[in-house]
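Weekly puzzle thread! Below is a chain. First person to post its structure in token form gets bragging rights.
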Amino acid sequence: MLARDQLPLRPAAAGFAAAWVIAIAGASVGLSLVFACVTPFVALAAVSAVVLPRRMAVTAVLLAWLANQLVGYLVLGYPQTWDSYAWGLAIGIAAFASLGVAIAALRLTADLAVTMTVAFLAGFIAYEGVLYAATSVLPSGEGAFSLAVVGEVLLINALAAIGLVCLHAAAAGRGFVAASPA
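Winning reply:
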């Protein structure tokens, strides 16, 4: 198990950091195909914030959002309307808000589990808050922020975060990443 002072991790094998960023983007594509409008950007942002250096975390979230938009418009047939594009932009802003507060949570001096939990929950609140604020200027369905919908989004993000943490732990266990130098 990794300790809090071992993060963010640095690649021990050449190209692993780039591979991790590509894996995050690839996960976005796969999850976009499975969940369509519920791509777990909070999970992607929180895990990236905790395990990657800041610049790489930003790159990972950007690539995940771009991949999600490409899948949506080119594969899933999202409507080519101003409000659809505006919602895509709002989702991107929400994803980066989630990343920003997750990065801010890294200032905690708590252990890894607490840090990851706070990064995830703060990121979820920021993400949903930005999207809720967008409903003041963009069209939205009545039930978009019902308890059932928000709970489903939270569950999908929590399961995705657990999966990504397990994937990263497996990579660390195989020696693909090492602790950052002190």
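Puzzle host: Confirmed. Bonus trivia for everyone else. The radius of gyration is 16 Å.
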